Amino acid sequence: MTESTNELSGKRVLLGITGGIAAYKAAEFARLVVKSGADLQVVMTTAACGFVTPVTMQALSGNPVFTDMWDSRVPNNMAHIELSRDRDLIVVAPASADFIAKLAAGFADDLLSALCLARRSPLAVAPAMNVEMWSHPATQRNIARIRADGVAILGPALGEQACGESGMGRMLEASELFAEVVSALAPKVLEGKRVLVTAGPTYEPIDTVRGITNQSSGKMGYAVAQAASEAGAQVTLVSGPTALPAPASVERVSVVTARAMYDAVMARVKKTDVFIAVAAVADYHVVGVRDRKIKRQAGNLKLELAPNKDILGTVAAGRNAPFCVGFAAETENLKAYAQQKRRNKRIPLLAANLAQDAFGRDDNALTLFDDTGEHVLDRAPKIVLARQLIAHVAGMLLKPK
Asked: In CA terms, which of 122, 195, 200, 337 is 20 to 30 Å from 134?
């Protein structure tokens, strides 16, 4: 996640910190939130102050930190009311088992619990506790109760814990929590839509150890999937070979070859509202793949290549086709080749870039082509461009046909 993209510009977030060793992650989370352009207010419980100091959180947030229900810095002595009224979101991270129990029971015996009870803004909690505490029936009842009350549950994760044990209960990492908050606060311009995205390269085998592939990292496609999910869509990502983690709340279907990607897409396209073909799909596959390693010999090795099926073209030509978005990575004549590809595929929108300026990088520059002309998206982190693309798609979907 790029930190300087102003994902939360203008947003107002309240971070509640409860007692637990995972409180150290709240410091990094606070840094990311402030770096993204949000105004951050921090409220800490007495127990939280034993793990990370209010001075630290004040330095990171740029605002005074509140810990006391009767703090005189609030003119009417009603901090539990005043601190939450202008917030777009309240996040409690870490949320201890004790604090989750308070939320479930409606207790309000300190500033943070009273603030959560008196809030008008959405509330999300990031649980952090020992594996046995997390799996205890009482905790699970409390989680079910607050979820039913509309509280978003962020995590926990599986992993090693400070106590030396391992299992569920580990708090999400700061970057993961930040991504969840960005998603929660993003405009839901694709709410209720089902989006299918392809990403990454494909790999066409020559023999059991060799194959033909390309330099696509998958970063753009994964960013598009993340942006669509942030916009409220139900997203399925069909991905070629890449080491990238799937974005939160996105279903990933892993494939290797172009033919496998074609099959995965065609099996899902009937239940799709928007299809975004970002993957760098191989145009050809090897005929007669060897079932053992080809040994080196003197002279040339000849391979016969046959064309792969056109995934985007097939989807776009289908009956009741979804809204289709294509990608074109060219090395020259970008405008001419992109416009030709859009016409040939008969799709409403195509995003184009120069391959040598995009593959493997964290940033990119795109030009969008539709019936109204060209729309230049200046070079920026890929997640920023992905969000701009999704906003453009949403705008086109809203236009009367």
From this structure: 122
The pLDDT confidence band at residue 356, using thresholds 50, 70 and 90, is: low
Nearest 5°: the CA angle 229, 234, 372 is 70
Global confidence as pTM: 0.74
Q: Which of 72, 121, 104, 122 is nearest to 113 (CA)?
A: 104
pLDDT the model gives residue 75: 76
Strands (E), 188-233: 194-199, 204-205, 211-212
Query: 362 or 206: which carries more pLDDT confidence?
Result: 206
CATH 3.60.10.10 fits 194-398, yes or no: no
- Could you report the per-residue pLDDT of 362-380, keeping only the tens digit for each? 788 899 999 999 999 988 8
Q: Counting Cβ atoms within 10 Å, is residue 267 exposed (0-12), middle (13-18) or buried (19+)?
A: exposed
Q: Kindly list the catalytic residues.
A: 163
**Residue labelled with tokens 């992650």:** 25
CB 229 within 8 A of CB 391: no
> What architecture is the 12-185 domain classified under in CATH?
3-Layer(aba) Sandwich (3.40)
Q: What are 268's two structure tokens?
A: 């899902």
**Cβ atoms of residues 276 and 195 within 8 Å:** yes
In order of 92, 174, 394, 396, the CA distances from 32 in angstroms are 15, 8, 28, 32
Residue 31 has pLDDT above 60, yes or no: yes
Q: Given this chain, do its domains 12-185 and 194-398 carry the same CATH topology? A: yes
Map out the domains of the chain as residue ranges: 12-185, 194-398
